[in-house]
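ESCALATION

Customer reports they have been waiting on this structure for their group meeting. Please prioritize. Original submission:
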Amino acid sequence: MRILLLSWEYPPHVVGGLGRHVGALARSLAAEGHEVHVVTRDLPEADTVRDGVEDGVHVVRVPEAPPVIGFDQLVAWVLAFNNRIQAVAGRLLRAQPFDVVHAHDWLVGYAAAGLKETWDVPVVATIHATEYGRHQGWLPGQMSKLLHQVEWWLTYEARRVIVCSRYMRDELERIFALPADKLDVVPNGVDVRDFAVDPAEARAMRRELTGPRTRMILYAGRLEYEKGVQTLLEALEEVRSRVGPTRLFVAGVGTYSEELRREVRRRKLQRHVRFTGFLADRELRLHFGAADVAVAPSIYEPFGLVAVEAMACGTPVVVGDTGGLREIVADGSGLSFTPQDAGALAEALVRVLTDDALAAELVDRGTARARDRYDWGAVARRTVEVYDQAAREEAALRAVEQRPPLRPQLRAAPILELDETG
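Update from on-call: job pushed to the front of the queue and completed.
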C-alpha cells in the first residue's frame, strides 16, 4: 500500500509516547514492504533534513509559516500547523494516489479532514488519549471543551478509528457515541531487540547513578498530573523507611514539572529524588537496565507504552491499575496498585525491592509478554488490515451514493436584475 501518516511528533522530535509510536509504526510498515510517507513538524535545531528517506520512510518536515506563532497560543498554532501540513500533503497526493491517510490525534485533525474532502482518500485516525480522560471525566474550561469537540470531529470524519486498548475502545464508544464496529483495537508495540540492554553497560550506569547499597526506582514519561508522579513521591517516604537507602529518578518533561519539584522540597526529598529531564532512547534504556524497578503510577493511561519498554529492557514494573496498564500486566507480568493510593504503591514497591525471586519472575514474564504480544511486525500487519477495511468501506460508500468526489464546489454569483434607474 501507499500510506500517508500525519503526526505533529516524529523522531527526533519526541515529547511522549506518540512520537515513538509513529516512528516505529512507520519503520515497521516500510519493513513489511509498504511505501510510507510521513508529514510532520520541522525542528530547525535538530540535525535532520526537511525532505528525505529515513529507515525506508519518506519523511517531509514542514517549516512553520510566518509569522511564527508560539506553541503557548495553542489554537492558533494548531490551525497554522494544519494549514501547512495539509498543503504539503496535498502536493504529495497531487503527484501520486495514496491508499490511506493515517492521522495521529487531534493535532492533525483539520488537515486530515481537509485531505479527505479534497482528494477522496479514506482517513484512519488513531486516538492516543482523550481530553475527557486526561481530566478524569470532566472538561474544566473552554479549551478542554474545544479539544474534546475536535477529537470527536476527527473520529466522525475518519472511516476507521484505531485505539490502543480495550479500555480506550470502551471510552470512545461511550463519550463520542461511536458505533462499536467503527473501532479497532491495535496495541502499541516494542521492538524487543532494540531494547536489549548490555548488562555491563547497565552495571556501569548503575554505579554512575547510585551507591552500591542504594535501591533505584525509575519513572519515565511526561510530567503531567494524570501520570501520578505525586503519588510516587508520597510513597517514597514509606519505601525508604522499610527498604533503606532508595533513590527515585524522574525522567521526562511536562507542565506539572514545577509542581512536582515543589512537592519534593516540601517533603525534604531533594537528596533522594533526581529529575533527569528528557532522556534520549539509549540513555533511557540504560536507566531502565540500571533500575531495580520501573513505575507507571498513572491515574489515566490509555495504553502505557513505557511499561512495555521497561519489560523489554528486563526491568520489573509496578503500574497503576487503570486503562491499558491493567491489560499489560494482566497475566502477572507486573504488579499493580490502586491509582492515587500511596500506601498500596509503597507496598508493591517494597515487595519487588525485598523479594529477589519475585523480581526475577516479573522480569521473565515481562520480557516474554513484550516479545510475544507487542511485536511491531504484528502491530504493523494488524494496522494494514484496518487500512484495507477502511479503503473497502470508502469505496462501497461512494458506489452506493454514486456521488462525485467531495471537492469544494464553486457556485456562480447571482445575476442581479436592474431596473431603469440602474
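Sent to customer with the following note: The chain has two domains: 2-189+376-401, 199-373.
Escalation resolved.
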